Hints:
This protein has 264 residues and is an all-alpha fold. The chain has one domain: Peroxidase, domain 2. 49% of the residues lie in helices and 2% in strands. The protein contains 13 helices and two strands; from the N terminus they run H-H-H-H-H-H-H-E-H-H-E-H-H-H-H. It has helices at 2-21, 34-37, 41-51, 55-70, 100-105, 113-121, 127-134, 149-152, 162-174, 192-198, 205-208, 215-226, 228-243; strands at residues 141-142, 179-180. The chain has a two-stranded antiparallel ribbon with strand order 1-2. The longest helix is centred in the N-terminal third of the chain and has 20 residues, at 2-21. The chain is globular and about 55 Å long. 30% of the residues are buried.
Amino acid sequence: MVFSMDFVVVALLLAAVASAAEGRPPEQLSPNYYEKTCPGVQDAVRAVMARRLDMAPAVLRLFFHDCFVNGCDASVLLDRTDSMESEKDADPANKSLAGDAAEEGLPSPVAGLGDLLRAFEERGLDARDLTALSGAHTVGKAHSCDNYRDRVYGDEGANIDPSFAALRRQSCEQGSGEAPFDEETPTVFDNRYFQDLLARRGLLTSDQELYTHGGPVSDLVELYATNRKAFFKDFAKAMVKMGNMRPPKRMPVEVRLSCRRVNN
């Protein structure tokens, strides 16, 4: 369990370092910088993650939302002002980046494979990145039945295990609709997500789409389902690659003098 949470922390730290370092003189940045300015920060992060297992999917979701919508601008660090709400004020277990841009820029839970591939390609990410990053759903849960209703109440011929569909319909009918992406090991970062896709037990339509049409993406699902090390390796690479994403050229950008506020 500790290993699993450590892996999430390391992947995020690698991505953050890569994001900060791209396009700048190498002598100005160091992956060990915080050892001097904030000794023990990595140990502190690991300790928090070990105590709050629900934080792993929340932090992964924050990083994905921050980078995928408008590039990695770290808007989640901004303090609240009279004219701007702060994302830091959200419930820690349910954090996500709010606003129209997030709603428009993120892939839909009912997106087809073609739409997913196009959305990732537009951001410089390929099919391997899409498949590996989707594996983040090996932890966490959907917070509403609305996210998977169409899948579990769809046609009988849909690519879904009947017993799994019945189980998730119960989630919709008997409670809040919360449901884990990975029923067996929802707090362990492993490759169970891909094994579930092989068994037609992907929770979201966009999950199961990775193993519906055959081809290279389905091949990757099969690889990750049987080779956890391959998944971990590609996930870390994809996280670093996504961490290098920059805001669109049309957007004004600045190097903030304080992480907590915009310069003007």
